[in-house]
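Predict the 3D structure for this chain.
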Amino acid sequence: MMTRIIAAAGAVLLLAGAALADPVGRYTLRGTNPGDGKFYVGEVTVSRTGDTYRVIWNIGSDTYTGTGIGSDDFLAVSYRSGNESGLALYGRKSDGKWHGIWTYAGGRQIGTDVWTPR
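Done. Predicted structure below.
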């Protein structure tokens, strides 16, 4: 009986750790644009939508909406804003921040993003 309780408690802790590590949440954003390296700041919200994620970037007066796939450690997102679209790739570092690179569709250079949990 005690072995079952300990095993169940361990399983709950493992599941809770995985749930806390996925990218769902709100973040402050700092990044640089491809090409000119112009700096920008904003906010990002990530929510789960079944097996995928919905990612919304708010940067100044612009909103970008994306669909992502990934895990506790990485996230790949295709995004769109008006006629612009692109791809972004992120990896979670040990400090809990998500570091990424991105480009516009047809782009030849990459920009960078760092998401800091709020």
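Residues 2-20 have pLDDT under 50 and may be disordered.
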